[in-house]
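ok so i was messing around last nite and threw this chain in just to see what happens. nothing serious, just curious
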Amino acid sequence: MNRSSSALFCLLRLALGAGSGKALRLKEDYSRLTFLSDGDWRTLVTMAFAQGVAAIAFDGLQKLYDAEPELALGIDGNALSMLRYEWLGSVLKTESDYAANVCAAEALAKKTPLVVLKGISVARKYPVPSHRQSVDLDVYGLRDFVPDDECRIVRDDYKHTAFRFREVMVEYHKSLTVWRSLKGGREIEQTLREELGAPEGMFAGEEFNALFLAVHSYVHFMLEGGITLRHLCDWMLVFDDLKKENPKEGERVLEILGRFGMREFTESMTRVTGYVCTGEPLQLGGTDRRMLDDILSLGDRKHFADGHLDAAFDILFRSGWKFKAFARESNVACLVRCVLGWLRLRIFSRSSREIGTSA
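result:
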């Protein structure tokens, strides 16, 4: 971590209303921002863009101005003044994407029953829903759907059909996870479907959302390069609310993740989330710190689903520690499964909704 990342954490806490809420704690967060140089601010804004939290961080800055105008004047340097226009442009783009996603989801739901995954579903938990970045619209179809003339198909495979609908990229999921790439993938997929059930409307229940987010984050972290600060913000808002409203359901989610071999990962992500999003003085272990470093590094992340076989390099050479810490198999065994799944996808790609006979 550096001064820019620490300051970004402060802005996220301010935006999400997380942390102790004590005046002293807020003063400490504010004071960190006053020591940023012009270069630090440029790094912070660039990081916020890359991490998918630019609009949320901007909310934090606005709350700072509203709550402590005198302190705010101390950080309003030349670089920040110039960056604010670019930053605000990103916020407006995020709001526009959110509105387009909501309209597309509502229109698509009139064509076929569906459930919205992540995106605008999780955004409902945010203080400003339209500031949760939602570029693509991820939905899970509750029955077979044949895209009509309004849908321009881009990709079709066992996991989802991707198409443009009213200028929004829609990923219409036929399965809830990349079960062919996961050890015990069939059980994980079947359990997710059972937990989803038959929801009323286009949003799932809180317990399913927490379970799905944890599995989704695990797949991203282990197989697709990593997760971002946006994943942590999502997790804090969804899982914290679930635990507060119904602690037994929160523990049940962890028990299910334990059956999947994902509990250690989820508990580590929860500790890192607490450190980043609440500012509480948590003690991070060595693995937790490696996870946080991995999140902040955010390189050029590629994965098999997009046809990038060079993602094998990440799994084989850069992610060995992740498998030792969080997986029930070696990175080599996982790599073999991913490659075979990728080849099968390319050679025998079909749009069947049914779970296959091997995982």
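not much to say yet. Residues 20-24, 302-308, 350-359 have pLDDT under 50 and may be disordered.
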